[in-house]
Design brief:
The chain folds into two domains: 78 residues, no CATH class; 83 residues, no CATH class. The chain is built from four helices and no strands. Helix 1 runs antiparallel to helix 2 and helix 3 packs across helix 4. The N terminus is likely disordered.
Length: 161
């Protein structure tokens, strides 16, 4: 049963600082693409940089438009250990991708990120369906990038013979 009180949370200052940092990085990336002559070289980086700027600005405006809660009543549901683990899993995945290849590294990363980020209880149905969905998504991205977009993805030194 829910009460009718307005759910107020503390303003996400660190998120807004990171959004400003991402805007700066995206602006530098946009400026860096001005030296590229071939349109195939600059279209993708510019699209990503523009999207990063737009979404970062949306995050900042969304945070500024929220009502501010008192410090004592602000919800503190942020989990620092989860955030650290998410970054660690992604960094380890990047480090292992040359040896394991895109498919194995991508699938393992997806599963580990899902385990770290999952707040809800793992039911039997979730234990069965989520890895299947993970395999389909990773295989779909592999097919999209390697076969359709012809992006050379790492096969992995362990499997390259």
């Amino acid at each position: 049963m829910q009460n009718n009180q307005i759910n107020t949370q503390a303003r996400d200052t660190s998120g807004m600082v990171m959004a400003c940092l991402f805007i700066l990085i995206a602006a530098i990336s946009l400026w860096d693409t001005t030296n590229m002559m071939d349109s195939d070289s600059y279209v993708f980086p510019r699209a990503i940089a523009i999207a990063l700027i737009v979404f970062s600005l949306l995050l900042i405006f969304w945070n500024l438009s929220k009502p501010v809660a008192d410090k004592k009543e602000a919800a503190t549901d942020a989990s620092t250990i989860r955030r650290i683990l998410l970054v660690a899993v992604m960094l380890v995945s990047c480090a292992l991708m040359p040896w394991l290849g895109f498919l194995i590294s991508g699938f393992a990363t997806y599963i580990l990120l899902m385990l770290v980020a999952m707040y809800d209880e793992w039911t039997s149905k979730k234990k069965l369906i989520y890895p299947l969905i993970a395999a389909a998504i990773v295989a779909g991205f592999y097919t999209l990038f390697s076969k359709l977009l012809l992006v050379p993805l790492p096969v992995g030194l362990l499997f390259d013979y």
